[in-house]
Structure formats: structure tokens, C-alpha cells
Amino acid sequence: MDPSAEPLALYIHWPFCLAKCPYCDFNSHVRERIDQGRFAAALRTELAWEAARLGRRPLASIFFGGGTPSLMEPATVGALIEDAARLFAPVPGMEITLEANPTSVEAGRFAGYRAAGVNRVSLGVQSLHDEDLRRLGRQHSSAQAMAALDLAARIFPRFSFDLIYARPGQTLAAWRAELRQALARAADHLSLYQLTIEPGTVYEGMHRRGELALPDEELAAELYDTTGEEAARFGLAAYEVSNYARPGSESRHNLAYWRYGDYAGIGPGAHGRLSIAERLVATRRHRAPEPWAERVERDGHGSTAEENVTAPDRAREMLLMGLRLAEGIDAARFATRTGIALDRAIDVEVREQAIEAGYLAGDPDRLRATAEGRKRLDALLAALVV
Ligand code: SF4
Q1: What is the reported pTM?
Q2: Best of 28, 99, 162 to mutate for ligand 1, by most ligand atoms within 8 A of CB?
Q3: How far is the CA of 68 from the centre of ligand 1 (A)?
Q4: pLDDT of 225-262, one tens digit each?
């Protein structure tokens, strides 16, 4: 199949937040005042620029991420959805997700987003405990999160929410209880992330100074196993390392990344992988919001240097992404997408050992990590990828 005929996933980045969470390394910025009109216009301009070179390709999903996209005016979201639907060819039932934080002000915009065409919302709940929310630097309370979840369930056909576990001082019993409480509110999808310490964050400094008591490796593994068990009891399967869904309710947009499909990234710091004239092009936008907007106003786009992704890099990227998925990587698609046979991209001896050890499944036409393998994915990939 011609990769440029595959449905496209479109990511739109809103780079602003009310405050910077101490664990977060996303491209997010705090401003006293946001010029909504200016950033809306710049996003629309850059979207039109990207679409002009891609042509009217089928569009499978739009994802408004951030930052905090629930700080966008619903009219901005609506205008971008309309533009995308005109510039591309939406597939029937196109998934349109917006990430939202559950403060009451943001929840107040839900009806507006739904009217604008958003059909799936992903809520950054993170914890159901007020003290932990405060420590995570979140701007909402547990009661607000509950209210936002109830509202999302009434307004949107699909919704998901995120929780962070393996938090400082968290016990297995406390996480199990919190997760059960969350699952009682869940619909068909949940993202459950283990807290990681990212370079350049406030948490990194605290961790270095010994001010964050994180769970040791053994407890972290138990927390991960418990997460999977509890989600499964509720009918949500781990389809990716940190994502759980009822079959058929997976995030189609995120599946496009993990399956190494084409995606366009619009807005400050957004990345893309696009099949253009027999090449796979890695796109990247200027990270800082105001300089990005200036470039868009001047040039029609805020793109920094673009690079062709070489065949070995395509193979590495697809392995890194695809082994996160419970379904793994289809060997035929791997060869089409990367130009390299799967057997030539991995150490086949290591594969045999990993199958023996129970970290990889023994499927003939697919490379698939087992649940045990996904638990130690970094080490598995380091050994497997040539
Ligand atoms: S709200 Fe989200 S994107 Fe913004 S700082 Fe917090 S974690 Fe990062």
C-alpha cells in the first residue's frame, strides 16, 4: 500500500497551562495573558500550510494536546476542526479528542467543545486525593475531578482519564483502593502512568536532593501488576504499556503513533512523521510559543529543519513504538513501512532467548512482547534492536 494513502492522524498543540506541574517535561508554558486570537490564527495558518503539501489525504483522527487545550476557546477548536475537515478527507466517525484539565472553569467549556465537534475527551485527573493533587502541582481538587468526570460522561460519546501512580509514599493498598474508586467512574478507556522523573523538572531536583521517596523497583513492579489486574477485572485490557481499554475503544489517534503511521503535528514544538514523495519526513516546529507564532506570521509555518528518516532509523523507531503495544508489530507492515525486513532489524538470537524467557511471544509473522516483556521494555529493546 502507498503509505501516503494511509489515513493521517493530526495533532494540534496548545502550549499554555495555568501553572507548571513539577513532574512535567512537556512543552508547556505559563503566561499571565494569552492572545487567543493570535494563536488561533497561527494554528489555522500552519494547518493550511501543512495541508497544502499533503493534499486531501484521508484523516482518521484529530488530537488537541498540550499544554492544556481546555484553555482554548471552543470557537478556536471549532474553527480548526472545520479547517481540517475541509482541507483533508475525514473518514466516517473520525475521532476528535481534546485533552482537558478538570478545573470547574474548564469543565464549563465541555458543552462548547462538544458543539464544536469534539467526540472524545481525555481528562488529566492524575489522583483522587487532594493532598497528592497538591503535591503534583495540580490546579483542581478531587471533588472537581469527580464532577468533571460526571459531566464528561453526560456530554461526550467517549471519554478517558489519566492517573499517575507510584507517587512518593504511595502503598500498594492505597493505590489499589484509589484505582478501584477510579474504575467505578471509568468508561471504556484509562491511561495509568507510572511517575517517572524527567530531566529538567522540579521533581528531578527534589529527587537528587533526596526529597522524593519513590517506590523501589520491586514495589513499582507490584504497582504495575496490580494496575493491570484491577483494570482487567473491570474489562479494560492493557493494549499499550500505560493504556487500558475495552476492545474497540482504544485511542485511534495514539494507535497511529504506536503503529508508526503518518501523523502531522501543528503548533509549537509539535512533531510529525509524514510520507511525502517516497520519503518519510520527520517534521518539528519551533518550541517556544511566541517565536513560533512570529515565524508562522512571517513564513506561513513554524517549521524548523526537516529531515528524511533513514531506513535504519525508521526500523528503530517502529520497534520502539510497536513493542509498547500488546498486539506487537506485523512483520509485513514493518517491511513496507521501513524498507527493512524485521529479521534484519533485530538480533534474532536475542529474540529466541527472549521467547525462551517469556518476554516475547513466538508468533511467526509478528514481533510481540508479552506482558512480562512490556514490563522490562527498555532492557528488552536495548538487547534486541541492532
Ligand atoms: S497541566 Fe499537563 S502539560 Fe500542563 S504543566 Fe501540568 S502536566 Fe504539564
Answers
A1: 0.96
A2: 28
A3: 7
A4: 999 999 999 999 999 999 999 999 999 999 999 999 99
